[in-house]
């Protein structure tokens, strides 16, 4: 058995910079990765999906330009779209490999499992270290639908290998993955059906968010089936047929399963190292990323926190500070995220309902995008800006922006929240005309009434 200084399992968003920084400090670092370097975001998540959406949105915007008096004939070269997706993805993944190599990290391309306290085995190597960091992320959770197993259904792991645009695509799940990829495929020319078991799309978001996204997807030709589940799947002669609990049967050449995630912990043999998992199999950590085993830390999606790349990456910075003995914590940060649908959903902090449930004397103001001059200029008037404040402290508690490029704008609110600024800062700001951001002081002014 070899002794090293640090073992990292998984080359996810936090694991790679941690490995590189610690190795650059002169530590002997071994990193295990069983799949492609760079984790889900680079290979199967954020980037391949946003590369695909860049093409899809270009097609949709070109079609929408007719409303502005500009008529374009749109022809999608799907193989070229997918070649670009894979080319850029591969460049990003190779870049991760070069970064690790340059920093002097010893990369073991194999699945890792614990064999004892802070002792890990993989690829024929057994190593032990005083510090072990788990960054193993999540995998698609595939529901046990009769007939599904053994069919060539797609998940985010296989979707980006598509070479031909499916004439009809059935998407199971109307959450982030289902809506981004479902709308993207529709804009590229597939006939898309989204099947969601909840009564609305994006059921974890506010109801009027679901309404705007529902209308936008329908306008792109997506057919939406709510409050229904797939009960049986069959695949014959290259065609899927999915029997729904509402009695309908849908057919398609592709079936994308996007029904949520499960933690990558079964292979870890965590109990051998004294690492406790929660009831859903995520690794239990405290506010300093410590697992129940001394010297073993976990970061990123595998801890069951909101599953976003920037959260995992920020975990890396905070864990580095914790390891240096600084009084840094895991939880004291503003959570924001974006769904890259068209229009986008940009979220920061708490919704009104969440704030009230936490005991705040919360108040919300909403401004429809059709009252923002720039949105009218662009003919992009779907959606709204919503701000939630604490009436007692005047602090901003959260925001929901649905609209054109709303994901860029919501970050302005995140910075104000991080600074602890009161909503009056927004209200008093003279922002630039005509921009979308100019709507924000108008929104904040509602609190003066
Ligand atoms: C389709 C899709 C689109 C997304 N888009 C966005 C987006 O736009 N923005 C955003 O912020 N987030 C997005 N996400 C979420 C984002 O991808 C994750 O939150 C992010 O990758 C953080 O992951 P992580 O660092 O926890 O680990 P991951 O990136 O999941 O990496 C974990 C790594 O550990 C490896 N591993 C697992 N078990 C073992 C083992 N036993 N031994 C060795 N290696 C192991 C895995 O192979 C993997 O490479 C998207 C996700 C999906 C599925
Ligand atoms: N832009 C982004 O940042 C981005 C994009 C994609 C994914 N992600 C991350 O990845 C995570 C996973 O995304 P996801 O879309 O896989 O999960 P999700 O939890 O967002 O959505 C899954 C949806 O599937 C539905 N569902 C579950 N089982 C079903 C069934 N049997 N039949 C029909 N519907 C069913 C759920 O009600 C839910 O609406 C997200 O929560 C997010 O954290 C982020």
Structure report:
The chain is an alpha/beta fold. It folds into three domains: 2-139 and 262-323, FAD/NAD(P)-binding domain; 159-259, FAD/NAD(P)-binding domain; 343-448, FAD/NAD-linked reductase, C-terminal dimerisation domain (Enolase-like, domain 1). 31% of the residues lie in helices and 24% in strands. The protein is built from twelve helices and 23 strands. The chain has helices spanning 15-24, 39-43, 46-64, 78-103, 176-188, 207-219, 309-323, 352-357, 373-378, 406-419, 423-427, 439-445; strands spanning 2-3, 6-9, 29-32, 106-108, 113-116, 119-122, 125-128, 131-134, 138-140, 168-172, 191-196, 223-226, 230-236, 239-244, 249-252, 254-257, 261-263, 296-298, 336-339, 344-349, 362-368, 384-390, 396-403. It has a five-stranded parallel β-sheet with strand order 4-3-2-8-18, with helices on one face. α3 (46-64) packs across α5 (176-188). It is globular. The protein starts with a strand and ends with a helix. The model has no long low-confidence stretch (mean pLDDT 98). The site of flavin-adenine dinucleotide has 38 residues, from α2, α3 and α7. InterPro entries: FAD/NAD-bd_sf (IPR036188), FAD/NAD-binding_dom (IPR023753), FAD/NAD-linked_Rdtase_dimer_sf (IPR016156), Pyr_nuc-diS_OxRdtase (IPR001100), Pyr_nucl-diS_OxRdtase_dimer (IPR004099). This is Dihydrolipoyl dehydrogenase. Residues 338-440 form the Pyridine nucleotide-disulphide oxidoreductase dimerisation domain. Disulfide bonds join 41-46. Keywords: FAD, Flavoprotein, NAD, Nucleotide-binding, Oxidoreductase.
């Amino acid at each position: 058995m070899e002794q090293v200084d640090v073992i990292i399992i998984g080359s996810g968003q936090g694991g790679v910079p941690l490995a590189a920084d610690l190795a650059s400090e002169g530590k002997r670092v071994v990193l295990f990765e069983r799949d492609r370097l760079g984790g889900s975001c680079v290979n199967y998540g954020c980037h391949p999906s946003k590369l695909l959406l860049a093409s899809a949105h270009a097609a949709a915007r070109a079609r929408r330009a007719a409303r502005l008096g500009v008529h374009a004939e749109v022809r999608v070269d799907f193989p070229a779209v997918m070649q670009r997706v894979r080319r850029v993805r591969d460049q990003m993944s190779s870049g991760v490999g070069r970064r690790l190599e340059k920093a002097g990290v010893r990369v073991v391309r194999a699945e890792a499992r614990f064999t004892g306290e802070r002792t890990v085995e993989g690829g024929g190597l057994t190593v032990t270290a005083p510090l072990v960091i788990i960054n193993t992320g999540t995998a698609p959770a595939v529901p046990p639908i009769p007939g599904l197993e053994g069919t060539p259904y797609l998940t985010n792991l296989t979707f980006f290998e598509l070479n031909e645009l499916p004439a009809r695509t059935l998407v199971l799940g109307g959450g982030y993955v289902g809506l981004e990829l479902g709308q993207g495929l529709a804009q590229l020319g597939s006939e898309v059906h989204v099947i969601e078991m909840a009564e609305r799309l994006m059921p974890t978001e506010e109801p009027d968010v679901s309404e705007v996204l529902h209308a936008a997807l329908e306008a792109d030709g997506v057919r939406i089936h709510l409050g229904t589940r797939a009960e049986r799947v069959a695949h014959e002669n290259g065609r899927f047929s999915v029997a729904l609990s509402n009695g309908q049967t849908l057919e398609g050449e592709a079936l994308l399963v996007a029904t949520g995630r499960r933690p990558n912990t079964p292979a870890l043999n965590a109990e051998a190292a004294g690492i406790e998992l929660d009831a859903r199999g995520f690794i239990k950590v405290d506010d300093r990323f410590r697992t129940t085993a001394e010297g073993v830390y976990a970061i990123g999606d595998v801890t069951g926190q909101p599953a976003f790349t920037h959260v995992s990456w920020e975990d890396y910075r905070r864990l580095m500070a914790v390891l240096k003995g600084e009084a840094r914590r895991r939880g004291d940060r503003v959570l924001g995220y974006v769904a890259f649908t068209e229009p986008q959903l940009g979220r920061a902090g708490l919704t009104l309902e969440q704030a009230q449930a936490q005991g705040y004397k919360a108040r919300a103001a909403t401004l429809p995008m059709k009252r923002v001059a720039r949105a009218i200029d662009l003919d992009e008037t779907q959606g709204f800006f919503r701000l939630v404040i604490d009436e007692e402290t005047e602090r901003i508690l959260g925001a929901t922006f649905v609209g054109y490029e709303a994901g860029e704008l919501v970050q302005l609110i995140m910075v104000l929240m991080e600074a602890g600024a009161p909503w009056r800062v927004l209200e008093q700001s003279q922002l630039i005309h005509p921009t979308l951001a100019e709507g924000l002081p108008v929104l904040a002014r509602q609190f003066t009434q």
